[in-house]
């Protein structure tokens, strides 16, 4: 019988969770979703990512403040439940779990397609199975081993993006050989900075929010982080500046070097297109490898986040206790295995949905990130109301203005997304939220 005293070990440092947040956010949303965002908004995609980055900053500041005030919290469900009540916490837990298991299912197929670049004769399901087994093995190791793996995967991605930024600026502002510096001309030469108007900017916000989603995984690491009340604020400060830089600067280079209306006309990632302009031999292979690592890194973070949500649900008696069982390495082995099963469901789903699986799921995942951020923001707003004096240690300086600004911006984006998104995606997402609510009314409320 499982002992109630079994607990996760606090072995993760700010270095680990900072890179994990980057690993979750700098994935397929950046490398695969970039073409979609540029096609929707044109050069104004830079404004979209800046707005998204500012909103993310305000949300994560609130999360950090709540973590400082509640150092015993295991995940952000504990932070939310103490201020918004059991339903909000239950809803947040399950939509976050749903987000990650759907995301790893979609990205398993995407990772397989990038492996197929080198192994064209190998079936997608075989390659997806291989990726799934690798991800499962890494997560079944100790949490420190997992964190170290994620750290180095994220570091590789960041190094390549830094090289991309430096080389891109050289191409933009210096002429050499047959290359002529283009400067800022492509930002306005093809229909202006807002070629699709304000509507294009609003529509692109769904891709933007999806792309930034994953950063809030910091809130799931609380039970395995040393001194979370000190580490989380430090990680939030360091992570946000890097995410905004690693999105806005690369997008600025892409839309400045390549006319925005040509980005989506070829099957290549815009990152590959720019590396070819730089003249690096085998640029397509280099970027294919980097994108593959980026997706695996994001899946790694996703499996971690979803399994820890399931673990805390089991520890509290909301799902079968077996999912709270820890291995000798202090990882929730059965929770990991259940969440991993969605990787294999992703393989089956790809048989029917084909290459459209990622695009279809991205819409639902974008909705979910919006809802998660809104719940965190409302929780932060109410947490400070319960104690009007500024808390000790870390606190948000311009409260409540930053939090209200984030809430109003997210609600505006939500309305715009509902107006412009496929009705099928909206209905499927609403149906999932309704099922979660019914489950709470039937069972979850009794356990609150």
TrEMBL record:
Keywords: Amino-acid transport, Cell membrane, Membrane, Transmembrane, Transmembrane helix, Transport. The chain crosses the membrane at residues 47-68, 100-119, 125-143, 155-177, 197-222, 243-261, 331-354, 360-381, 401-419, 425-442. It is found in: Cell membrane. One of its GO terms (biological process) is transmembrane transport. It is a multi-pass membrane protein. Its main location: membrane. Pfam families: AA_permease (PF00324). This is Amino acid permease. It comes from Bacillus glycinifermentans.
């Amino acid at each position: 019988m499982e002992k109630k005293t079994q607990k996760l070990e606090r072995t993760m440092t700010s270095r680990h969770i900072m890179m994990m947040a980057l690993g979750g956010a700098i994935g397929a949303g950046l490398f695969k979703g970039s073409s979609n965002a540029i096609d929707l908004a044109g050069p104004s995609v830079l404004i979209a990512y800046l707005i998204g980055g500012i909103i993310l900053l305000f949300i994560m500041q609130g999360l950090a403040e709540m973590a400082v005030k509640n150092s015993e919290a295991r995940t952000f469900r504990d932070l939310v439940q103490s201020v918004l009540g059991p339903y909000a916490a239950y809803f947040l837990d399950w939509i976050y779990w749903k987000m990650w298991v759907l995301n790893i299912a979609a990205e398993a197929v995407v990772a397989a397609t990038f492996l197929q670049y080198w192994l064209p004769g190998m079936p997608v399901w075989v390659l997806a199975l291989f990726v799934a087994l690798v991800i499962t093995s890494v997560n079944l190791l100790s949490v420190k081993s997992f964190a170290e793996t994620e750290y180095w995967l994220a570091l590789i991605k960041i190094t390549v993006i830094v090289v991309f930024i430096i080389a891109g600026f050289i191409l933009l502002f210096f002429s050499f050989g047959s290359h002529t510096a283009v400067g800022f001309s492509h930002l306005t030469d093809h229909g202006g900075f807002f070629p699709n108007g304000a509507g294009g900017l609003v529509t692109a916000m769904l891709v933007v929010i999806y792309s930034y989603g994953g950063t809030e995984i910091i809130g799931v690491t609380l039970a395995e982080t040393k001194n979370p009340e000190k580490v989380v604020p430090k990680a939030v400060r360091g992570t946000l500046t890097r995410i905004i830089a690693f999105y806005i600067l690369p997008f600025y280079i892409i839309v400045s070097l390549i006319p925005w209306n040509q980005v989506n006309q070829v099957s290549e990632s815009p990152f590959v297109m720019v590396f070819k302009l730089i003249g690096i031999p085998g640029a397509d292979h280099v970027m294919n490898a980097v994108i593959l690592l980026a997706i695996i890194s994001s899946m790694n973070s996703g499996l971690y986040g979803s399994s820890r949500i399931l673990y805390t649900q089991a520890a509290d008696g909301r799902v079968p206790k077996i999912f709270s069982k820890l291995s000798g390495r202090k990882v929730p082995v059965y929770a990991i295995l259940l969440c991993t099963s969605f990787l294999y469901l992703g393989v089956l789903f790809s048989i029917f949905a084909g290459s459209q699986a990622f695009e279809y799921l991205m819409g639902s995942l974008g909705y979910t990130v919006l809802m998660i951020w809104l719940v965190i923001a409302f929780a932060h707003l109410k947490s400070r109301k319960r104690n009007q004096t500024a808390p000790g240690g870390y606190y948000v300086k311009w409260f409540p203005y930053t939090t209200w600004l984030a809430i109003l911006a997210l609600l505006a984006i939500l309305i715009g997304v509902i107006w412009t998104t496929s009705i099928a995606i909206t209905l499927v997402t609403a149906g999932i939220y309704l099922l979660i609510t019914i489950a709470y009314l039937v069972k979850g409320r009794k356990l609150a």
